[in-house]
Predict the 3D structure of the following.
Amino acid sequence: MNIEKEKIAYPKLFEVEEEKPIIISDKVELEDLTMSEIKKKNPKYWRKLNDAVYEKYQDEEGFYHSAEDKFKSKSKFNFQINHIKPMFAT
């Protein structure tokens, strides 16, 4: 009972500040991530980047060109985005 009287008489002595947890995020540059990691973290940015890379290697006729050899195709399916190279052995 005395403690309760003390709380009323001296409320500042019994105040307890709640400590909020401190959250420290890891800073990771997008340039350090793989395309699949970018896709998980930021799907909209991944789509924009993916489309920009394919657009760079597309000609006026709609063919995508390999950056490493003379392979070309109208389908993105035949290429790996990370190197713009055919996914099958030539």
Remarks:
- Confidence is low (pLDDT under 50) at residues 85-90.
- The beta strands are 64-65, 72-73, 79-80, 85-86.
- Residues 38 and 46 are 6 Å apart (CA to CA).
- DSSP finds three helices and four strands in the chain.
